Amino acid sequence: MAAQKKPTVAIVMGSKTDWPTLEFTVKTLKEFGIESTVKVMSAHRTPHEAAEFAESAAKNGYKVIIGAAGGAAHLCGVLAGHTILPVIGIPVKGWALDGMDSLLSTVQMPKGVPVATVAIGKAGAINAAILAVQMMAIGDDALKQKLIEFKKTMAAEVLQADAELQKELEG
User: Fold this and answer.
1) Whose CA is closest to 134, among 155, 150, 117?
2) How does DSSP assign 50-113, residue by residue?
3) Is 25 exposed, middle or buried (0-12, 13-18, 19+ CB in 10 A)?
4) Cβ pair 53, 121 in contact under 8 A
5) Is the Cβ–Cβ distance between 69 and 75 less than 8 Å?
6) Measured distance CA(22)–CA(115) in Å, rounded
7) Hey, what's the torsion of the CAs at 158, 164, 169, 170, to 10 degrees?
8) According to a count of CB atoms within 10 Å of the terminal CB, is the N or C end of the chain lower?
9) Hey, which residues does 38 pair with through a beta bridge?
10) What DSSP string describes 102-151?
11) CA Rg value for the chain
C-alpha cells in the first residue's frame, strides 16, 4: 500500500456553509496531485483556535493557507496575522451585499499583513487553488510541468471553441 501524501495546503473556512464553494478548491488541488486539510474555524467564534492553527501551520508542513469567509470575513486576516506562510483569501457570498462585504473585508488588509485575494465564489475558489499551486511550483519542477500542461489545455479548449463557432457562423 502506498504511503499517503501529507497535506501541504490548509483550507480554513469560517462556516460549514462555505463548503459548497470550497469543494472546488479541494477538487482543483487534487487535479494537481496536492493534498489538503480542510477545517472550519471562525475569526469571531473560535479566534484562539484560528490563531493557534495559523501559528503552527508551517511547523505542521503546510506551504500555503487558503481561507474563506463571508460577511465581515476577518478570518484570512487573522490567519495572516499569525503566520509567515502565504495566505490566499476567498470571499464567500454571505447573507448580505452579495459577497461584496466579504471581498472588501478580505482585500483591505493593513500594510505588513498581506492576503492574496481572489474573486468571490466558485471562480475564486478555483483560482485560489491554482495560485497555491503556482506558489509551490516555484521550487517544484514536477508541479511546474503540471501547470504548463494545465495552461496548454486551457488554450486548446478556447481555440477549439473558436473553431466550432467559426464553423457555425459559416454554415
Assistant:
1) 150
2) HHHHHHHHTTTT-SEEEEEEETT--HHHHHHHT-SS-EEEEEE--SSGGGHHHHHHHH-PPTT-
3) buried
4) no
5) yes
6) 17
7) 130
8) N
9) 11
10) HHHHHH-PPTT---EE--SSHHHHHHHHHHHHHHHHTT-HHHHHHHHHHH
11) 18
Q: Which three cell numbers stand for residue 34?
A: 496536492
How does pLDDT run along the chain (171 residues), one tens digit per residue? 555 689 999 999 999 999 999 999 999 999 999 999 999 999 999 999 999 999 999 999 999 999 999 988 999 999 999 999 999 999 999 878 999 999 999 999 999 999 999 999 999 999 999 999 999 999 999 999 999 999 999 999 999 999 999 999 997
Question: Are the C-beta atoms of 67 and 113 separated by less than 8 Å?
Answer: no
- From residue 22, alpha-carbon distances to 75, 140, 152 in Å are 15, 25, 25
Local structure of residue 2 (DSSP, 8 states):
P
Distance CA(42)–CA(75), nearest Å, equals 6
| Cell numbers representing residue 89 in the block | 483569501
pTM above 0.90, yes or no: yes
* Residue 128 near residue 136 (C-beta atoms within 8 A): no
Q: CA-CA distance, 6 to 11, in Å (whole number)?
A: 14
Residue 1 neighbours by CB distance under 10 Å: 3
